[in-house]
Amino acid sequence: MVQGRRHSKADFYTTSPYEIRIHGELDERWSEWFSGIRIHVESSEVGPPQTTLQCPPMDQSRLRGIMNKLWDLNLSILSVIRLEDQEFDNSGIPIQTGE
Amino acid sequence: MDFTEHLLTTKLQVPPLPTKSVRRGRLYESLDRGLHPNSHLTLISAPAGYGKTTLLSNWIHDRDLPVAWYSIDEGDNDPIRFSAYLLSTLRKGNPDITLSPSSIDQFSEDEFQAQLLIPLLNQISQSPRQTLLVLDDYHWIQSQTIHDRVGYLLENLPPQAHIFIATRSDPALPITRLRGRGQVNELRLEDLRFRAKEVESFLGIFSNLDLSSEDIKILTDRSEGWISSLQMAVVSLQSHEDKGSFIRSFSGSHHYIMDYLLDEVIRQQSPEVQTFLLNTSILKRMCGSLCDALMELVSDAPTPSQKILTELERANLFIIALDDRRQWYRYHRLFSDLLQSRLKPPDPDHIPALHRVASQWFEENRFMDDAVHHALLVHDPVFAADLIERSAQATFMRSETMTFLRWVQRLPEKEIQRRPKLGIYRAWSLLFQGAPLSTIEAHLEKDDEISGPPGSALVLKAYISLSKGQLEKGIDSAERALENLPQDEIVLRDFATFCISASLISLGDSERGIKLFQQTSQRSHQAGNKMLAVLLLCKLAEYRVRQLQNKEAQDLYQKALSMATDEQGKYLPIAGSALIGLGNLALEQFELEEAERLLQEGIQYARRWNIISTLGGYLSVALLQEAKGELDKLTATLEILHDLARRFDASEFDDLAVEIVEMGIKARSGDFTSFHRWVSDWEQEVAPAQKIKPGLKDYLSPRLYKYQLPILIRLQIKEQHYDEALTLVDRLCEEANKADRPYLKAEAEILRALTYHRKGEPASSLTALQQALEIALPQKTTRIFLVEGEELIQLLKIARSNLYTHEYISFIDYILNKVEPPTPKETPLTHDMSEPLSPRELEILRLLPSGLTAEELADELIISVNTVRSHLKNIYAKLGVHSRHEAVARANDLNLL
Questions:
Q1: Which residues of A touch B341 (CB under 8 A)?
Q2: What confidence score (pLDDT) does residue B104 get?
Q3: Chain B CB contacts of A73 below 8 Å
Q4: Residues B271-299: what's their mean pLDDT?
């Protein structure tokens, strides 16, 4: 799923931030294991909670690696969205979550 | 040892049944549908931990099905490796499949299909047995080549064969097409989820759990039938007093189920075990002593780790023993991922510090690959580069050059350039990998500017000069290198000496060269430089072969082979050189099966040391395939050879050698097109450039003249220019004498015999043939006679009835026996024997009453001891006996002696 302006093929060779939405509540403790993605849990009045994973700019192959890790943990993916650079906080600096 | 024996056979066994598993009857019925004649593929697709493997192995055990099982792992995403395993397991699963995986790396895709897949499908369809192939964990496969091969099998599968694929994600196979034809049977996530009833029987296995049906329903819903999470829940439940309240709190949480359960599991452990679990989760494999080293970082007085490991295994805490002695363990993959997410370091340097300790432990215990793996995770290029640089010389001494290259290539370029020594060793391994010379020379020039071990770049330059045939220049560089190199640079110094001695031999000073070879080999051996010690012995052996001293060569190769092993007695890559040499000797004796086995195995090892060194192996393979009449395979091998020679651009010599072998093989079959093409290329390009007036003799390179002459002679014979042919034969004899190549002389005499035969002068023909027999007799070299085809066989038969020396007659019989069944009186009685004995086996059997040992038999027959043993094994099996004594008695009964 691609949002925003139409992307030319060449864009995909460079890196972009992504947002992955998964079913259920994933603890923030996983952030580091996923090499610095940011984890938000969204509670909902009606259904079960969802979690969004904000991924710093990465290429397609790293994105694929993250999806594989999610799959290995048996987490269900609801959507994957490619973000514009400016839509990602911290201008793409990987977020350190060390306590 | 065959290549296939290296395949870990546990990968090809149905995994043992877990002690605590549920029989899932409803899924058995789905699996049974996979055995329907129209069902080609049963696809079991679900994420990790849904019990795919357990389901399949339970079903196979309960239904008692003969099966070809293959557990795929990370390392199998390689077409050669995959196909070798595939064939091996199919042979195990259905005895009617007899195709051997030994030559699969030689095929292009089309040939692979024609040579292997189609014959394989034929054997499957001709077999009365059902063939059931299971590919477990197929998700590791990404190679399109492998997908294509499996896809081809799937599309063309005969009705009595079925493929079952278990995978975490759907594979890139033509599933849609198969589905359209109703040939796919599928079990997916939804089918594999544990239903409440199955959860109940699973929990029932643990007698101390007493749960209400309400509790079971909650557990089933919350776990969504994911058996991994249920297993984890059981660990927590077992130590909970109030199981009901645990289950209720568990179901009320929206947390990722594994997070929740892991917290529970961890909470129940003592603080010490908690620390242990978290800190050791960074290890891919672990043993007590390694864990102790890690734990010293985090605890002042740690419990011995071996005790904790045993405890964890007893408590069923997702730890898997890797060996029977319970020395090495690893965590269940998902469990270790979970633990790592929990490892919250007290400071940012903690995790790198763990990897650093692990790396040091592995280095001290000489598990270099693991040491490098952890060193790279320290994220300190200096630390990793130090380790790799430190181990460079030792790794080369073990001839593990391709392993070394893999390590170096994971370092940042900047770090390598700061270290000239690392740069030098990288350049060597790139050369052995077959990288273009320009790349290597570019590296060298850069390294020259920095002060490395003095003289180290000169050694590589000497080696390259030697390959280019610039011998004096090579000697000069090598001598200067030796003046400058420190004494402890053993590998580089030995390489330099090697260059000097090899150049001396090529310059005609064999005596000094050989002496230097012998001295260096001994010194290398003492210094632990197995790579060079073995290489030099093989070079010495090669020299013996040229002089037709096969027995001496055989001894040298055997000696080299026994040196080329690691601490566990497993062959090092350099063993490939010795195996190829032994294969070549077996080939000359026309022991074709033995030769094929040795050559293929040798090539597998050699490519891990130096890809160019496989060239000699493939040249022999080409001659072998000529001898066996396997023309399609021969074409493929010649392709490989041309490709290899092109890759090694340091020398033209290898390109010429390949062309000459190819022209020679074709000339023997009467095809001179490639020779004519070669001559015309030469006329148009080389001759004008060198201002040489073309004359037939001058087309031939001075260095290779003697090897090209036989081709020319054959051409003259074909065109019925017999007198020209005889003149050239004389010249070939001269060349052979000059270069001290008796083997070439024998070939010349054979060609002379053929020419006189065509010319209608039988007496002269016989004399020439007798000359050839005389040269070949002491070593029982037979290939040169047998590749000449029917005409020479007839000549040999004529010679047999005209020569009166017993020696010649028995040698001719020996040669003829290799290709023709023994004469009637020698035909063994076949009754009471499953299979008649081969001529070679009969020969050995007849020597048995003499009481010779296996070693003496080997000497007598000029074959290896292992071959003798394997012949003896076959003899015993065919006679149905268990000892030498019984064999002789039985042979007497059957009138075989």
A1: 27, 29-30, 32-33
A2: 63
A3: 256, 258, 334, 337
A4: 93
Q: What pLDDT does A93 receive? A: 46
The CATH number for B550's domain is 1.25.40.10
B262's CB contacts (< 8 A; 6+ apart) are: B232, B338, B339, B342
Contacts of A24 in chain B (CB under 8 A): 254-256
* A99 to chain B, closest Cα gap in Å: 8
- φ, ψ at B255 (rounded to 5°): -60, 150
Q: Kindly list the distances between the CA atom of residue B488 and the CA atoms of A39, B393, B491, B492, in Å, as whole numbers in the listed order.
A: 55, 10, 9, 9
Contacting B residues, span 693-712, partner chain A, CB-CB under 8 Å: none
Residues spanned by the domain of B802 = 670-819
> Is there a single domain that holds both residue B37 and residue B181?
yes
Kindly state whether residue B409 falls inside one of the protein's structural domains: yes
Question: What is the H or E stretch that residue A17 is in?
Answer: strand A16-23
Q: Does residue B163 share a domain with residue B54?
A: yes
Domain boundary among B397, B427, B452: B452
Query: Which residue among B379, B396, B426 closes a domain?
Result: B379
Question: Is the pLDDT assigned to residue B680 strictly greater than 90?
Answer: no
> How many domains is chain B partitioned into structurally?
8
B19 and B100 within one domain:
yes
In terms of domains, do B713 and B778 share one? yes
* Interface membership of B348 toward A (CB under 8 Å): yes
Does B340 share its domain with B260?
A: no
Instruction: Phi first, then psi: give them for residue A35, nearest 5 degrees.
Output: 45, 55
CB contact set of B36 (below 8 Å; sequence gap of 6+): B185
Contact call for B47 and A74, based on CB within 8 A: yes
The SS3 of residue B102 is: helix
| Domain ranges, ordered by start, for chain A | 15-52
Answer yes or no: are the C-beta atoms of B862 and B779 closer than 8 Å. Answer: yes
Same domain, B217 and B296: no
> A40 - beta bridge partners?
A52
| pLDDT of B93 over the 50 cut | yes
Q: Which chain A residues are closer than 8 Å to B226 by Cβ?
A: 74
Task: Return the structure tokens found at B561.
Answer: 């082979």
3-state secondary structure of B304: coil
Q: Distance (Å, rounded) from C-alpha B221 to C-alpha B247?
A: 11
* Numbered residues of chain A with Cβ closer than 8 Å to any chain B Cβ: 24-27, 29-30, 32-33, 48-49, 69, 71-75, 98-99
What's the pLDDT at B499?
94
Global pTM reads 0.74
pLDDT at B57 over 80: yes
Residue with tokens 């975490």: B168
Query: B 255-274 residues with CB below 8 A of A?
Result: 255-256, 258-259
Least confident of B334-348, B416-430, B501-515, B726-740: B334-348
Are B163 and B153 within 8 A, CB to CB? yes
Domain presence at residue B656: no
Q: Which of B202-206, B643-647, B701-705, B871-875 has the lowest mean pLDDT?
A: B701-705
Q: Does B333 touch chain A (CB under 8 A)?
A: yes
Nearest CA in chain B to A22: B256
State the residue for tokens 């007893």.
B314
| pLDDT(B1) > 50 | no
pLDDT digits over B813-853, tens only? 999 998 875 554 444 444 455 567 777 788 888 888 777 77
Do B805 and B876 belong together in one domain?
no
CB atoms B340 and A33 under 8 Å: yes
What is the mean predicted confidence (pLDDT) over B745-754?
95
- Confidence check: pLDDT of A88 > 80: no
Do B336 and B414 share a structural domain? Answer: no
Is residue B664 in some structural domain? no
What pLDDT, in 10s, does the model give residues B798-817?
998 888 788 888 999 999 99
Cα separation, B137 vs B52, in Å, equals: 9
